[in-house]
Amino acid sequence: MFHGSMVALVTPMADDGSVDYAALERLVAFHLDNGTDAIVAVGTTGESATLDFDEHCQVVRRVVELVRGRIPVIAGTGANSTQEAIELTRCGMEAGADACLLVTPYYNKPPQEGLYQHFRAIAEAVPVPQILYNVPGRTGVDMTTDTVERLAPFGNIIGLKDAHGSQERVQELVERVGDRLELYSGEDGAACEAMIAGYHGDISVTANVAPALMHEMCEAARNGEAERARDLDGRLRPLHQALFCQTSPIPVKWALYEMGLMGEAIRLPLVPLAHEYHDTVRAALRETGVL
């Protein structure tokens, strides 16, 4: 259903902390003009943890309105409360999202059976297509391939975003569930090799600032043009690294500010990029031709 370069879109904010919908419109237009294959609204990069329920739903709704069906919109609707995740997922479906992205519950660190029951409950409650999201570095819990395989038979669980970061996990997932689920990388630095190995795309932070180049790299990797894909990925590598010099989305929001696409505001407890990293991010933008 979905493939290629799928941007994990930031949520632009005004200086008072409110959502900047004018800047959101500019960002969506930027991606539509530069080949992004799908937009993920209000995922981790979109500061889902600090948007309230109404803001969360409104940002998804507005992105859907701005895209007008030209590319898919995937709503981030995960939560560490199963009931809240069901409500957010229902909201994403009603807002018109093509699918919902559901992160493993964070902080409460459920066992594998808890993960299975959590995602089963959401799949049974809301019929929208759903993509599981495993990011142990953020959540403190790693959803095993065994658990993913148990969830694969649910008809509306259609994919997995994997940010485990291991090539061994990539191969394991491709071999065991690649014929039943669409697989997406959640690690920009590992995405090229994952797609060459059989993943369908990359849900990307880097695509926020280099959408055209990310689209080109993903397309080459998916088409089996390994040498060309690796060459393009080499050009993107400075961004893959610089955009994680502090906790994401701090660096990428500052990069978009530097590009003139939005302000630099971010919600507490995150703060704007420390001055000592400005040259690092700016140099990466210049090296890759973004500035």
Automatic annotation (TrEMBL):
Report the principal subcellular site: cytoplasm
Q: Which GO terms describe its biological process?
A: diaminopimelate biosynthetic process; lysine biosynthetic process via diaminopimelate
Task: Site (L-lysine inhibitor binding): give the residues.
Answer: 49, 80, 84, 106
Binding-site list for pyruvate: 45, 203
Q: Name one GO cellular component term.
A: cytosol
CDD domains for the chain: DHDPS
Q: Where in the cell is it found?
A: Cytoplasm
Q: Which Pfam families match?
A: DHDPS (PF00701)
Enzyme class, top EC level, equals lyase
Tell me which SUPFAM superfamilies the record gives: Aldolase
Keyword annotations from UniProtKB, A to Z:
Amino-acid biosynthesis, Cytoplasm, Diaminopimelate biosynthesis, Lyase, Lysine biosynthesis, Schiff base
SMART domains (UniProt xref)? DHDPS (SM01130)
Query: Which GO molecular function annotations are given, in alphabetical order?
Result: 4-hydroxy-tetrahydrodipicolinate synthase activity
Q: What does the record give as the active site? A: 133 (proton donor/acceptor), 161 (schiff-base intermediate with substrate)
EC numbers:
4.3.3.7
Pathway(s) of this molecule: Amino-acid biosynthesis; L-lysine biosynthesis via DAP pathway; (S)-tetrahydrodipicolinate from L-aspartate: step 3/4
- UniProt-listed InterPro entries: Aldolase_TIM, DapA, DapA-like, Schiff_base-form_aldolases_AS, Schiff_base-form_aldolases_CS
| PROSITE patterns xrefs | DHDPS_1, DHDPS_2
* Chain positions of site Part of a proton relay during catalysis: 44, 107
UniProt xrefs under NCBIfam families: dapA
- Family that this chain belongs to: Belongs to the DapA family.
Subunit comment: Homotetramer; dimer of dimers.
Function (record text): Catalyzes the condensation of (S)-aspartate-beta-semialdehyde [(S)-ASA] and pyruvate to 4-hydroxy-tetrahydrodipicolinate (HTPA).
Q: What is this protein called?
A: 4-hydroxy-tetrahydrodipicolinate synthase
What organism is the protein native to?
A: Thiohalospira halophila DSM 15071
